[in-house]
Specification:
It contains 15 helices and nine strands. By secondary structure, the protein is of the alpha/beta class. It is globular.
C-alpha cells in the first residue's frame, strides 16, 4: 500500500540533537554511512559536528560535499561517482533541500543504475534503496518529510520530480540550532518557501483531509514565528517552531502537491537567479488573488486565515481572504523583499518569456484554478508591479 504517503519512520527534534546523530543512525543497525552535503555546510562546521557524532558512535564515514544549490543530474552523478563501489549502508543528506534531494537521487542510482531521468515520476525505483537519513540545516523545503527528490535536468531548466516510497527518509533529525547562524537572507527565503508550501498545499486539486490538517498547522506556526526568527535570529524556540512548521508543510506536499506560485518560481530562478523561496513568496501574492476568484479556493484560503486567527471565526470568506492577503504582504515586507519583483531585477517585459515555462511546470496542473500561459503572463506582470499598487 505504498500509495499512501507516510511520515519518516522516526523524527527526532530538538536543539543540539545533531550531537546524537551517531547513536540515532547506529540504531538503524548500520556501520558504514555516506554523508551527502555541500561546501557551505562544511564551512559552517555542521559537517564536522555531524561526522564527529557519527564517528563517536563507531560508524565508518565517507563524504561527498560537492552538491550545488538547485542540484541537477550532474550533482547526483558526481555523488554516485564519489560513493563508487564503497559498501555504504545508509545515506545521510546533510544541508538544505539540495543536499537531501541529492542523497535521495544517489539512492536511486546506487540501487538501480541509469540516470536520474529514468526515475522522473513516482514508483520507479529499481531494487532496494539504501535508507536515507535527512538532517536539514534550514527550515524550508520539508524534503525530510517527502518521498520525492527534485532534481534539475543538467543543461535545461526542467525539474524532475523523482519519487518512490523507498526514498522517504527513514530518519529525520531536526536540530534548530543548525539554522541559528544562517544569514538573514537564507532565513527569509526558506521561511517564505515553507509559507508557500503551507498556502499552496491548502488549495491544490490533490488536497485531502490530511494535507489540510498539516497545511493549517504549518501556516499557523509560520505566521507567528517567521517574523520572530527574522527579528531575533537566535530565538531558539522560534527556530524550533519554524523547523516543525517546515516539516509539517513538507508533509502536506506529500499529500497534496503544489501550485502556480511554484510554477512561477522555477523560471524566475533559472532565468533571473531569484532564490527559490523568495520567488515562491513573491509569486504567492498574485496567485492567491487569482485563485480566490474561485469560490472553493476562497473558502479554503478563508479557513486557513481563520485557523491562524487572522480573521474572526464568523468572518465572511471575502474578508478572511483579504486578511490572508494582508498577512502575506506583511510577511514579504518583514522578510525584506517588498512586493515587486521589478525591484529585484525582473522587468515586467519578461512576463511573456517566463509564462510559457511556468505553464510547463509539473506543479501547474495541481493549481485549483486552471492556469494557461496567458494567465501566467498576467500573474508575472502583477508580481512585477504589485508593489506600485500598494504605494511601495
Ligand atoms: Fe518550495
Amino acid at each position: 500500500m505504498d500509495s499512501v504517503p507516510r511520515p519518516p519512520h522516526r523524527i527526532v527534534l530538538g536543539p543540539g540533537v545533531v550531537d546524537r546523530l551517531g547513536r540515532l543512525v547506529a540504531e538503524l543497525e548500520v556501520e558504514r554511512v555516506f554523508v551527502v552535503t555541500d561546501p557551505g555546510i562544511v564551512a559552517a562546521g555542521h559537517c564536522e559536528r555531524a561526522e564527529d557524532a557519527l564517528g563517536a558512535a563507531g560508524l565508518e564515514v565517507r563524504r561527498f560535499d560537492g552538491v550545488r544549490e538547485n542540484p541537477t543530474s550532474l550533482d547526483v552523478d558526481r555523488c554516485v561517482e564519489a560513493l563508487g563501489s564503497w559498501d555504504a549502508q545508509a545515506l545521510i543528506g546533510l544541508g538544505g533541500g539540495s543536499s537531501i534531494d541529492a542523497a535521495k537521487g544517489c539512492a536511486f542510482l546506487q540501487a538501480g543504475g541509469g540516470s536520474m531521468a529514468d526515475y522522473d515520476g513516482h514508483g520507479k525505483a529499481r531494487g532496494t534503496l539504501l535508507p536515507i537519513v535527512a538532517v536539514p540545516t534550514t527550515a524550508g523545503t520539508g524534503t525530510e518529510m517527502q518521498s520525492f527528490a527534485l532534481i534539475g535536468e543538467e543543461g535545461t531548466h526542467s525539474k524532475m520530480a523523482c519519487g518512490d516510497a523507498q526514498a522517504l527518509p527513514t530518519l529525520a533529525v531536526l536540530d534548530p540550532l543548525l539554522t541559528v547562524t544562517q544569514p538573514r537572507f537564507v532565513t527569509a527565503c526558506t521561511g517564505l518557501d515553507a509559507l508557500g508550501h503551507a498556502v499552496e498545499t491548502a488549495v491544490t486539486r490533490d488536497r485531502n483531509a490530511t494535507s489540510a490538517h498539516f497545511s493549517s498547522l504549518a501556516f499557523e506556526l509560520i505566521v507567528e514565528h517567521l517574523p520572530r526568527v527574522l527579528e531575533c535570529p537566535d530565538d531558539v524556540d522560534a527556530r524550533t517552531q519554524m523547523m516543525i512548521a517546515a516539516a509539517w508543510a513538507g508533509y502536506a506536499i506529500e499529500h497534496s502537491m503544489l501550485g502556480a506560485a511554484h510554477s512561477m518560481a522555477n523560471p524566475l530562478t533559472a532565468r533571473f537567479g531569484v532564490a527559490h523561496g523568495q520567488a515562491v513568496g513573491m509569486s504567492l501574492l498574485p496567485v492567491v488573488r487569482y485563485n480566490a476568484s474561485d469560490p472553493e479556493a476562497a473558502r479554503l484560503y478563508a479557513d486557513l486565515a481563520r485557523g491562524a486567527a487572522l480573521a474572526a471565526s464568523d468572518s465572511s470568506d471575502s474578508d478572511a481572504v483579504d486578511a490572508l492577503v494582508a498577512c502575506l504582504e506583511d510577511l514579504l515586507r518583514v522578510s525584506g523583499f517588498g512586493l515587486s519583483l521589478a525591484a529585484h531585477g525582473v522587468p515586467a517585459s519578461a512576463a511573456e518569456a517566463l509564462a510559457p515555462e511556468a505553464a510547463q511546470q509539473w506543479t501547474a496542473q495541481f493549481n485549483p484554478r486552471a492556469v494557461s500561459a496567458e494567465s501566467f503572463v498576467e500573474l508575472f506582470r502583477t508580481a512585477c508591479s504589485q508593489g506600485d499598487e500598494v504605494g511601495q
